[in-house]
Amino acid sequence: MDPFGILYTDLYQLTMGQVYFLLGLHEREALFEAFYRKNPDYGAHQAGYTVFAGLDPLLSWMEAARFGEEELAALRALKSRSGKPLFAEDYLAYLRGMGGFSGLTLRALPEGRVAHPQVPLVSVEGPLLQAQLLETALLNRLSYETLIATKASRVREAAGEAVVLEFGLRRAPAKGGESATRASLIGGANRSSAVSLSHLLGLPASGTHAHSLVQAFLALGYSEEDAFQAFAEVFPDNTILLLDTVDTLHSGLPHAIKV
User: Which of 57, 83, 140, 242 lies in the 20 to 30 Å Cα band around 181?
Assistant: First the structure.
């Protein structure tokens, strides 16, 4: 079972869904709107705008998400406090035949567009049960990417004409790195060090080298200058040197200038 599939949701979405189903409300037309109340707060001050992101990954997830036998077995294994099945078999049968989220219509801002508080980012229309089940996945994907895209946009604005590179994959939580890389590029970063994501987005990956390159050379009896020289010789057209492994001003910078 894919842990990021259709059960990548909160339990209460499914229990509310059963209430709708048993009362015959599950196919009533509903309208849900996703919005936020204020722009991001970065501590010292609040952002003056928000950049919307995360829509395309949400749509891709919606196309693939289905209740298969593994997912239904996982739900069937859940019990109430009295030990009875938490979900009725006719409800599970309905989920099996529901066909994911094909009954929903989404109206949304384009990714990269500036958004404003209290104004819907996405409107979801369709059967009540399907719209309810989408809530967690929608908020999970849109909220994080929008936050990162907004921060990246502010970095882009501060950098002016300078090149902005995104190196966050190693610091991100698991698949959160994918979302953060994508959102950073939407927000204004020129390039990313993430190889697969850059390829999928049609951009060349970019990067420097790690401290470990210099440390490896030092451990083997060579110098920081030797490490820089080796890297520059192997990649003469793509040389970006990391200066702060030993001492930025008294070692890294002089050696980089010399190389």
Answer: 242
Put residue 112 in one of left, alpha, beta given phi > 0 → left and psi -120 to 50 → alpha: left
Question: Which tens digit of pLDDT belongs to each residue from 122-172?
Answer: 999 999 999 999 999 999 999 999 999 999 999 999 999 999 999 988 888
Q: What angle do CA 72, 76, 77 make, to 5 degrees?
A: 120
Using an 8 Å Cβ cutoff, are 133 and 103 in contact? Answer: no
pLDDT digits (tens, 9 = 90+) for 221-238: 999 999 999 999 999 998
Angle at 181 between CA 176 and CA 187, to 5 degrees: 120
**Encoding tokens for residue 41?**
């707060």
Torsional sign, CA 215, 217, 223, 224: negative
Q: What is the b/e burial string over 231-250, where b = at least 16 CB atoms within 10 angstroms of the residue's CB? A: beeeeeeeeebbbebbeeee
The class of domain 11-141 in CATH terms is alpha beta
Judge whether 207 and 195 are in contact, CB under 8 Å: no
Q: What are the boundaries of each domain within the chain?
A: 11-141, 211-258
Beta partners for 30? 126
Provide the CB-side half-sphere exposure for 207 (13 A, CA): 14
Q: Tell me the H-state helices in the chain.
A: 11-22, 55-64, 69-76, 89-97, 128-159, 176-187, 195-200, 211-219, 224-234, 253-258
- How far, in Å, CA of 233 to CA of 225, rounded? 12
Burial 77-87 (b: 16+ CB within 10 A, else e): eeeeeeeeebb
